[in-house]
UniProtKB/TrEMBL annotation:
Single GO molecular function: DNA-binding transcription factor activity
Gene3D superfamilies: Periplasmic binding protein-like II, Winged helix-like DNA-binding domain superfamily/Winged helix DNA-binding domain
Residues annotated as domain HTH lysR-type: 8-65
Protein name: Transcriptional regulator
SUPFAM superfamilies (UniProt xref): Periplasmic binding protein-like II, Winged helix' DNA-binding domain
Taxonomic source organism: Photobacterium gaetbulicola
Length: 311
């Protein structure tokens, strides 16, 4: 028996499965749409690989050995996923697709863009069962285990090589505080605003120990005075509206309150003046029609979004 499986033709496994099923080379040839001579040649190659006793000749056909039956079962288990994948490529129709789709989005991005993302997905996949959830502890493992189909996150978030990452959008940052803020209305110099209380949104997708704006304060010799950390944008807005607290944020937050204003940033590094948003999914799913459609849908949505002016 020569068990060099690297050189084994997948068509031989299909032949093996059909011969075991029909127990007749002529019937197998008809079912496969090939000549009986081709079947005989294929069986000869199978015997070279798995041994002469793979099939026993009988008067009216062939009798598969126990090894042949087990190999046929294994071939079925192996070839069926191939067939399913090919079928999904050939038959995928986004307007008819009715499967479950799970999208995980970093919490602040979900609060800001969630409604628009849902509308875009619902239009692109009207019959799908959509789940829009926030990114939390365990979500990374879930996407690796194929429990999450697609994620939206801030680009600096470290991800394993198993995930394909593509850029979605750039968001410009400003200082956000209440209108007519007593300090920001006069100056945006860091030494003049460093004493002001800070509001921060907490995210399970971001390590708060490495907040780049905290590091900026510390590098300049200031201790950041964090007055509020919260998962909730409405709570953050309430704090900003009713105090002198400030937040490094985008102008999108102003769409949620008419009592807030954007103010110019102090002199800070260019990488802190804007941040990037990315979409990710498994590298192994890059060729799947569903993931390609999700990729295109999310990209089109973010391409259509115009950030409110920071004035």
């Amino acid at each position: 028996m020569q068990t060099n499986l690297e050189d084994l033709d997948l068509n031989l496994l299909k032949l093996l499965r059909v011969v075991v099923e029909t127990r007749n080379t002529s019937t197998a040839a008809d079912k496969l749409g090939i000549s009986q001579t081709s079947v005989s040649r294929g069986l000869a190659k199978l015997r070279e690989t798995f041994g002469d006793q793979l099939f026993i000749r009988k008067a009216h056909g062939v009798e598969p050995s126990e090894l042949a039956e087990k190999l046929a079962e294994a071939a079925e288990n192996m070839l069926t996923p191939f067939a399913n994948v090919l079928d999904s490529y050939q038959s995928f129709d986004p307007l008819e697709y009715s499967g479950r789709i799970v999208i995980a989005v970093e919490l602040s991005l979900l609060e800001t863009f969630g409604q628009g993302i849902y509308r875009a997905l619902n239009k692109a996949l009207p019959n799908a069962c959509l789940e829009l959830i926030y990114w939390q502890e365990g979500s990374l493992q879930d996407i690796l285990e194929r429990k999450i189909d697609y994620m939206v996150h801030y680009s600096p978030y470290p991800l394993p090589q198993e995930l394909y990452v593509h850029h979605l959008s750039i968001i410009k940052v400003s200082l956000v505080a209440r209108k007519n803020h007593p300090v920001l209305s006069q100056t945006n110099e860091l030494d003049a605003i460093a004493h002001l209380p800070l509001v921060k949104l907490v995210s399970d997708a971001v390590n708060i120990k490495h907040d780049p704006y905290d590091e900026l304060y510390l590098d300049k010799g200031y201790t950041p005075k964090v007055a509020l950390r919260t998962h909730s944008i409405p709570i953050a807005i309430d704090k900003l509206e009713h105090s002198d607290a400030i937040k490094f944020s985008s102008s999108y937050i102003m769409s949620l309150s008419d009592k807030l204003a954007c103010y110019p940033l102090p002199k800070i590094p260019a990488n802190l003046r804007e941040f990037s948003i990315s979409g990710s999914y498994l590298q192994s799913k890059r060729g799947y029609p569903l993931n390609q459609h999700l990729h295109q849908t999310m990209q089109s949505f973010f391409d259509s979004v115009i950030q409110p002016p920071m004035t």
